[in-house]
Amino acid sequence: MSKTWTNVLRIFSFAIAFVFWGLQLACLVVQARYQAEYIDDRLFYLFNIIVTVALTVALLLTFKKRLNILIGSIAAFFIIFQFIQLQGIKDVTSISPDFNHVFSIKQNGASDATYYRSYYRLLGKPKEDLSYQIKGKGNIKWITNDIAVFTSQSETNGVQQFVGTYGARGDSVAYTYVSTQIRGTWKNDDTTVTASMDGVLITHGDQTTSFEWEQAKQFGTLTLVLTENNEAKWTIGLAEDFYYDQNTPDPPVGSIVLYQATMNKVEPVTLEYTGEA
Amino acid sequence: MEKWGEQMKKGLLVLSTLLLLSMIFMTIYYQKKEPALTPEQALSLSSNTRTAPEKVPEETLQGTPVTDEIAYSLQQDKLQITYNNGQDWVVVPVDKSNLFSGEYNGNQQELIANSFILNEQYAAFLYWNNGVQLIYSTDKDSNWQESLITDQVPPIRYRKIAFLSDDFWYAVISYGRTMSSEGASIYITNDQGQSWRETNMPNTTRLVANGGFVTEQIGVMAYGTINPAEPEMHVTNDGGATWQKATFEMPSKYDGVFVTPNVPYQEEDHLALIMEQGPNGDYGNIQAKFISKDNGLTWEFVEEVEPDNEQNMD
C-alpha cells in the first residue's frame, strides 16, 4: 500500500473515531439534561465499538510491530467487554418501513416493560408502562408506515399486543374513536370484519369470533386491540388510505388492516369497505 | 520532517489514550445511570413527595378538604375528620382498609369518590366488611352508628352513598365483576339506616358507570366504563320498581365522544344532565349538556359546556 493511501486511511479512521466519540458524548449530555435515553441501549456499546475499531486501525497504521501488539490487545479486551454488555440488553427496537419512526420496548430486569417514543431517531423517552413483563423476545410488525404492533408473550397473561402509533387520519384535530369510524362491513378473500353498535364480528377462514366494544382497547387514534379473557386476539388498524368524516353521513373510504395476535409468523390482512354492517 | 512525524505519533497516542479513558468513564456513568421515568411515574413520584413532605410534625394532619372548614385525613392509617379546618380531629371508628376493600386500584390517599358524605349535618362512610356497611353520624358530636346494608353480595367495585333527604338515603353498589360484566344493586332506607330494601334493577350486566336518584321516584343507572361507544342509561319513574332505557338524541359528530352520563338534576321544569367523555375521551376539556322533558326517558342535546361552570350533582 502506498504511503499516501496509508495516510488517507489513517486520517479517515481517526476522523470516524472522533465523530462517533463526539456523538456519544453529545447524546449523553442531552440524555442527562432532558431525561432521555438511547432509543435502544445497545447503541451506546455499538458506538464504543466503532470508536475503538476506528482508533485501533488508525494506530496500527502508525506504529511499528512491538507497540501494535499492545494496542491490539487493549483494543481486543475493550471490544470483548462491550460485546458482553450487549448480550445483557433485552430491548426490542424496529424502524418503520419508511425510516421515519423508531418503535422501542425496553425491559429492565424484573420490572414491567416500558414503551419508548423516539426523538431524532437515536434518542427516546419512556412513554408508557406496558403493565406486564415480556417472556422471550416478542416481535414487531409495522402494519402501516405509522402503526407498529408489538406482539409478545406476557409472564402471566398469555399473548399481548401493544401498539405504537405515529400519525392520524384525516385532518385529525380532535381525538377520534376507531370503533365509531370503522362501522360497516370490511372484506378480503376469506376474511370479514363487521363492526356495528354492538361490537365487532371477525370471520377468518371458517372461524368466527365476536367481540363487544368493552373488549377493545384503543391505541392512539389509529388502532384497536381486541381481547378475550385479557389475552389479545386481533389488532385492527386504519390503513393510510382510510378517510372518514364524522360530520357527514358518508361511509368511510379506503381500507383497514387486520393483524392476528399470535406468536407464529402471520401477515396483516388489508380489508376493503363493502357496505353497512 | 522526521521530528514532526514523531510528534504526530506522540500526539496521536496521547489523544487515543484520552479517548479510551473517557469511554471507560462514560461506560461507568452509563451503567450507573437511573432509567428515565414515564410521565405517569414522574407524576406519581412528584405527588408522593407533595403529599408526604419530608418532615411532618407528628401532630399535624394534612387533610383532604371537603368544604372550607370540613376535611378528612387518611394519614396515620386511620380515618379522621375535622369540622374546624384542622384544629380538632375526630377518629372515625372504621378500619381504613375496609373503606377500600373490593375492587379498587388507587393509592388509598383519598376516599373513593361518592363513597362518603361529609357536611355540616352528616358524616357517613360506606365500606365493606363481610357485607356492605355504613357508618354514620347525624350530629357533630360523633355518636357513630353502624348499619348493615346487605350481607348478600361479594366485595364491591362501584360504590355510592347519597342522602336525598332525612328519610331517603340510597346506596348503589356493583360487585362480582368478571371481564366486562358484573352485578349491581340499589338499596334504599326511609328510616335512617334502620332497615334497607333492595329495588329492582335494569336488565343488564354491563359495568356500572354511575347511578343515583333525582327525586324519590326518578332515578337512573348508567353503564359502560371500559371503552363505551355510546351512552347507556336506564331510568325509573317509580323508585326503582321498573326501568326503561333512555334514548339520547346525539348529534352525529359527538358519536362516541360523549358516552358517560352523570346523574341528572332538576332544572326549572325539566331534568338536565351533564354527559362526560369516556375514559379515552380527548375532545378537549368539554362536556355535553342534555335536557329531558319526560322525566328522563328521552334526552336532547343542548350545548357543550365546560366542567365546573354547570351545576353537577354527581
Automatic annotation (TrEMBL), chain A:
This is Uncharacterized protein. It comes from Paraliobacillus ryukyuensis. Keywords: Membrane, Transmembrane, Transmembrane helix. The chain crosses the membrane at residues 12-31, 43-63, 69-86.
Automatic annotation (TrEMBL), chain B:
Keywords: Membrane, Transmembrane, Transmembrane helix. The keyword Transcription does not apply. This is BNR/Asp-box repeat protein. The chain crosses the membrane at residues 12-30. Residues 41-51 have a biased composition (Polar residues). CDD domains: Sialidase_non-viral. Residues 41-61 are annotated as: Disordered.
